[in-house]
Write a structure and sequence with these properties.
The chain has a four-stranded antiparallel sheet, with no helix packed on it. The protein is about 0% helix and about 40% strand. The protein is built from no helices and eleven strands. With about 130 residues, the protein is mainly β. The protein is globular. It has one domain: Sandwich (Jelly Rolls), CATH 2.60.120.770.
Length: about 130
């Protein structure tokens, strides 16, 4: 497992954001699959709870410093969610109860993520690291 530092060397804050995904197979006795850990020499740029409307939502993302966006629907959500580009393209249906993780290229950060919801959803957590 490697640690990838996503932050530019020109800027360093007193806090560090760290994001990791662990994969464990319960059906076998192998060790967990080693995946990289991503760190940023910033504290979380954004950590907020948003309410999404039925239909298309343009969610603002402060990607000036952040490189990983994590969108977490509320526990037990069953309303459909489709991830779309800022132009409202066809999109990709996502698990309504699972986190959405996006890794943003530092050379071309974006400012919005499109989420189309089948109904209003309250309490969607958005974290930018």
């Amino acid at each position: 497992m490697a640690i990838r530092d996503l932050s530019p060397s020109s800027w360093n804050a007193p806090s560090t954001g760290r994001f990791a995904i662990a994969v464990q197979h319960s059906a076998d006795d192998n060790d967990p699959i080693p995946l990289d850990v991503w760190i940023s020499n910033y504290s979380s740029v954004e950590d907020e709870v948003a309410d999404l409307n039925s239909g298309f939502n343009a969610v603002s993302i402060d990607s000036t410093y952040g490189r990983i966006v994590i969108i977490i629907p509320p526990f037990g959500n069953t309303t459909t969610i489709t991830l779309k580009g800022p132009t409202g393209d066809t999109g990709i249906a996502v698990n309504p109860q699972g986190p959405i993780v996006l890794s943003i290229p530092s050379a071309s950060p974006f400012s919005t993520v499109g989420l189309t919801c089948g109904a209003a959803i309250s309490g969607v957590r958005i974290i930018v690291i």
